[in-house]
Amino acid sequence: MTGAPRWDLTQLVDDASFEGVKKSIHGCLKEIDGFVESYRYRIESMDAVALKGLLEETDALALRMDGPVMFASLSFSADTSDEKARELNGRASTVLAKINRDLVFLQTDLSRLMEARPDIISAPELSEYRHYLERMRDVAKHMLSEREERVVLAKNRSGIESWSRLHNRWLASKRFPMTVDGETRKLRLGEMTPFISDPDREVRKSAYVSMGNVLAEDKTLWAEIMSAICADHREMMNLRKCPYVVSPSLDRNDISQGTLVALMRVARSNAKLCHKYFDLKAELLGLPRLGSWDLRAPLPGSPEISYSWDEARRLLVSVYSEYDPLFGEWAEDMYDSKRIDSEARKGKLAGAFCSVWENGRSAFIMSSYNGKLDDVYALAHELGHAVHAYSYTRAQVKTNYDVSKCMAECGSLFGELLLTDRLLKEAKTPLERRDALVHVLEGFTQTVFQEGFRFLFELSLYETLEEGRQLTADGIADLWSKAQRTIYGEGMDYLPESRYDWARFPQFFSAEGRFNNYPHVFAQLFAFALYRLYRVQGEAFKPKLRKMLEAGSSKSPVELVAELGFNIEKDAFWIKGMEQAKEYLDELRRLSYEI
Ligand SMILES: [Zn+2]
Which residues pair with 184 in a beta bridge? Predict the structure, then answer.
């Protein structure tokens, strides 16, 4: 028993009974119909004042629906075996699907209006919505008519969304043979996870070999499906007149192509940092060189430090307060207002997340707390998300709460580095210091370099089709291995069985997952760059970070970084992130001689 609490979701709704929430969700469906009735076919002729009214009403509608929809989805996350929660969650999904379907006109008509009358963007009445309207104007040139957009949605439902569901079911049906204590058992993919970070090298290797062999059985099927998914996307890009297969993802994340190019150039040209970490890890593991099956290997001799729930709470609140008393107050509020569910129990969704409660200008955090260092880091991370949410929901209108994946980790990863700083200061032994540094460097290398190679892999699929070549199972496996070696280099041994690893990642078989790797590279390197600036500028940096967190999506990342005095489309900003990682690596190397 760690004393970790459950959250109180009743604060999200007026009536938290099953019937009460059902009624509220039903009310949301009716409200959407009313909204469509009021605004359809009217946007085209709107002036600035009328447009402001529409945007305010859209915000108000979204905020009214926030509580019941969140109640339903969070209740289900907290207990997936609860039939009532499952039903409510299903109803909430219907609301979200209806919004996607019925409010298509809002996007298409607003984009058309911005394209026809760009002057409206600078109207003083619309100052709070300026950047949102600029983005609407910019996507107009790639947008089809409302009718065509609805056909695309319908096509995707029976196309890529079906492949995505099939992939989930296929993965869930697969069993991987694993010999444990002399007994061979057939395990699910999720049950294989502990073996890839097992202290025994042979166990790790046999887990990867087993996964690779089973995935290879269906390689032709998934190559064919991947090929169909990529061909469909290329065709859509032609129809939409998009210059680049990554364009829709860049638009969604508010990222310029120049930013992506600079980011990936810095990631690739600094791959040696990753190689140096792997060499050091091999040394610490007592190996001549690392194998790809050692990437998740734990280091020997780690002290078993356990943090009680109260100790972790005191530590985290004090870490945030020390940096900024207001951040500390908000972190404390998350605990006091019962918005954290960290009790480890059966039926909860795995992993940790933070959901922004927009209408309450707050958030809810879920994790499973077992007192380990990783659990404390998970909470530091999610509390950083909460601090970010408290910041922009207090400073912006609802439209500007739409923080992109690239910027969404500013608070969370920065918070992790604040915790690292504290742990390094308070560590009693070199081994404790080593473990804090390893935690940070594992996260950094796995995100910047692993996600980086997956991005290069996905891009190479399209380049292959562009050159008029087919995507076969072995061709895809070659692209996977090539991208991996481009980043991880030749200083590591690779398992031939892992060539078909691409088949197990849902992101390559879903619409939301398409080109979803570079935002992780961006977010990680961005947070490290911010931390570097903080280390150099000290107190002077703090108001800048506050301003950035408060901005939400009201400004583009290019504008936000310009306010810090950097151009995000140039390498120099990203190199700051690499410098911070290098400092941690140098410190780890120095420490490893002491141990
Ligand atoms: Zn996060």
Answer: 179
CA gyration radius, the chain: 24
Mean pLDDT of 289-302: 94
Residue 243 DSSP symbol: S
Nearest to 225 by CA among 502, 516, 518: 502
What is the model's pTM?
0.94
Interval 474-491: pLDDT, tens: 999 999 999 999 999 999
Q: How far is the CA of 177 from the centre of ligand 1 (A)?
A: 33
Give the pLDDT confidence score for residue 512 in this predicted structure: 85
Q: Which residues have a Cβ under 8 Å from the Cβ of 219 and sit 6 or more positions away? A: 473, 474, 477, 500, 503
Q: How far is the CA of 412 from the centre of ligand 1 (A)?
A: 6
Query: Ligand 1 centroid vs 382 CA: distance in angstroms?
Result: 6
- Report the separation in Å between the CA atom of 13 and the middle of ligand 1, taken as the mean of its atom positions: 26
Question: What distance in angstroms lies between residue 419's CA and the mean position of ligand 1's atoms?
Answer: 15
Secondary structure letter of residue 299 according to DSSP = P
Give tens-digit pLDDT for 47-77.
Answer: 999 999 999 999 999 999 999 999 999 999 9
Q: What is the mean pLDDT of the chain?
A: 95
Position 185: which residue type?
Answer: R
How much distance in Å is there from the Cα of 184 to the middle of ligand 1?
A: 37
Q: What is the pLDDT of residue 1?
A: 62
Tell me how far the alpha carbon of residue 408 lies from the centroid of ligand 1, in angstroms.
Answer: 7
Between the CA of 386 and the centroid of ligand 1 the distance, in Å, is: 10
Confidence of residue 511 (pLDDT cuts 50, 70, 90): confident
How many angstroms is it from 179 CA to the middle of ligand 1? 35
Which tokens belong to 61? 């509608």
What angle do the packed helices 83-102 and 146-158 form, to 10 degrees?
140
How far is the centre of ligand 1, averaged over its atoms, from the C-alpha of 522 (Å)? Answer: 13
Check residue 338 and report its DSSP letter: T
Could you tell me the distance, in angstroms and rounded to a whole number, from the CA of residue 405 to the centre of ligand 1? 9
**Residues pairing with 366 in the sheet:** 341, 353
What is the whole-number distance in angstroms between the Cα of residue 251 and the centre of ligand 1? Answer: 21
pLDDT digits (tens, 9 = 90+) for 244-272: 999 999 999 999 999 999 999 999 999 99
Rounded distance from Cα 418 to ligand 1 centre (Å): 15
Cα of 314 to ligand 1 centre, how many Å?
A: 21
Q: Could you count the other beta carbons within 10 Å of the beta carbon of residue 83?
A: 8
- Distance, in Å, from the CA atom of 140 to the CA atom of 111, rounded to the nearest integer, reads 5
pLDDT bin (cut points 50, 70, 90) of residue 238 is very high
The size of the chain, in residues, is: 595
Q: Calculate what percentage of the chain has a pLDDT beyond 90.
A: 91
pLDDT tens profile 513-534: 899 999 999 999 999 999 999 9
Burial class (CB in 10 A: 0-12, 13-18, 19+), 286: exposed
Please tell me the number of Cα atoms within 13 Å of 470 on its side-chain side: 7
> Cα(115) to centroid of ligand 1, in Å?
35
Specify the pLDDT at position 422: 97
